[in-house]
Amino acid sequence: MTKARDIASATTPNANAALLATFPHRNLIINGACVIDQRNSGSSVTPADTNYTVDRWRYTASQASKFTFQQNAGSVTPPAGFENYMGFTVASAVTVGSGDYFAITQRIEGYNVNQLEFGTSNAKTVTLSFWVRSSLTGTFGGTLRGASFGRSYPFTYAISSANTWEYKTVTVAGDTSGTYQSGNTTGLEVIFGLGVGSTNSGTAGAWTASGHFSATGAVSVVGTGSATWYITGVQLEVGDTATPFEHRSYGDELARCRRYYQGETRQFLFYYNPSASLVNVNYQEEMRAAPTVTFTTSNGSPSAGNIGTNNCYFLITAAASGYYADYTLSAEL
């Protein structure tokens, strides 16, 4: 059964929150305060299906070019204690069909959710909390999804005042069914629906053997032209109590994000060979898996080899000195 609380201020959710907030590493969400934006650097973009917005937050959609996204879109004042948020604006309204879906998600690595013991009789209760603001009001939806996307828990939350930050919490009993991944693949996914058809929606308040994106009857943000939906302070933690948001240092949050994506970096090759230059490249952080190396610009013809989770080599073939290569690394879930 879902327990939802709507709090329109930044007050402590309950009397035990101050004590619970002293425990570090409570938040299973990475970049919940939307401070890291390696790909876009605060610029407005029109995300395609599976594109990332701010770090760790993946956009998914069945139709293209229906939303624009920007960190701190609209330049509204964030909730107290925050400086950044994810901002979605409807670029082209659409009537959502039964099979359509528009959503923002975070896939959490199995290693980070093993403690929840989902899929066993010891499954732990979790609480999701966040600040949200929209130009629309009504009942909105999302899900927790896991077990190779074959299990989901649709939930709802209400926005009562347009263009006003509101604090929400949703408490979910742990899933005792399904087989959840425990390694470096997706263990659990948090999804916020922005317009989801009936095929991909389910009844709120119970685990089901389907990979839903949202709750049945939820507001379709994408259905209203120029509608906005903003979110920040997303936290998922063990227990039935929402504690104050766990603010981590910028460096700590960046390091966590770099396990999955490392933004454009320049590699110089300081020696010259008439036919080729080869150099070992050490990553900024150990990555979740051997990453995809994408070269953005260079003054040679680079290729990557021996790609591991900590390093690789670059080979550049060109008849010139002063070689360099700009590149990104992606090991997203």
Describe this structure in words.
This protein has three helices and 19 strands. With 333 residues, the chain is mainly beta. The protein has helices at 17-20, 110-113, 250-258; strands at 3-7, 58-61, 67-71, 86-90, 101-109, 126-134, 138-146, 151-159, 166-172, 186-196, 201-202, 214-215, 228-238, 261-268, 277-282, 292-298, 302-305, 311-316, 324-330. The relative contact order is 0.19. It is globular. The protein has two domains: 3-255, Galactose-binding domain-like (Jelly Rolls, Sandwich); 260-330. 5% of the residues lie in helices and 38% in strands. The longest helix is centred in the last third of the chain and has 9 residues, at 250-258.
Key terms:
single chain, 333 residues, mainly beta, Jelly Rolls, 2 domains, 6-stranded antiparallel beta sheet, 5-stranded antiparallel beta sheet, 3 helices, globular, disordered N terminus
Quaternary structure state of the chains depicted:
single chain
Proportion in helices? under 10%
Indicate the structural class: mainly beta
Question: Number of domains in the coordinates?
Answer: 2
CATH-assigned homologous superfamily of the largest domain: Galactose-binding domain-like
Report, as a whole number of angstroms, the end-to-end distance: 29 Å
Shape: globular
Largest sheet: 6 strands, antiparallel
Give the C-alpha Rg. 21 Å
The strand count comes to 19
On the 0-100 scale, what is the average pLDDT?
Answer: 92
What CATH calls the topology of the largest domain is Jelly Rolls
Range of strand content? 35-45%
Poorly predicted sequence stretches spanning 5 or more consecutive residues: 1-15
